[in-house]
Amino acid sequence: MSFPINNAAVQQFASSKNGEITLSLIREFFSHFNMQYSLAVFDPESCEGISYKSTSKSKLATELGLENVTGEPLLHTLVTNMMKERGVIVDSERKTEQPSSELAEKEKMENPKGIKNFEMCLLDVNFCLPCIHNF
Question: What whole-number distance in Å separates Cα of residue 25 and Cα of residue 114?
């Protein structure tokens, strides 16, 4: 095992623009939630200041084409935008996923009784194997 500063894989990853952006997104997430212990480990292990210089939140938002970014970490904004593009609306307060109307209609056709997967598993053991990854 080598000291993190000598971590060639991280240094190579950080040397690309996408690598720098990725590491800066993770760092911004930790900073947003004031995760000081995580940052104390992440910075030396990610070679921050050596292989890359972390990018500010406003510059990251500009580079990623994000607008009106205020109280959320950028990583969350990216995930939310991606989910919206895929047609999945995520209710962040209740932490439940609400499918778009097209997906809801498909679900209704496949499951007319509206039984949740877990309930189906309890009712029909044969159903459990194909749906195990849906939990």
Answer: 39
Strand stretches in the chain, DSSP E: 88-91, 96-99
Question: Domains, the chain, ranges and CATH?
Answer: 4-99 (1.20.960.40), 100-135 (no CATH)
Report residue 96: phi and psi, to 5°.
Answer: -120, 150
> Which residues partner with 83 through β-bridges?
none
> Residue 24: its pLDDT value, please?
96
Give the model confidence (pLDDT) of 44-87 as tens digits.
Answer: 999 898 889 999 999 999 999 998 887 899 999 999 889 988 88
CA-CA distances (angstroms) from residue 54 to 22, 29, 34, 43? Answer: 10, 12, 16, 9
pTM higher than 0.70, yes or no?
no
Q: How far is CA 42 from CA 32, 111, 123, 128, in A?
A: 14, 45, 46, 40
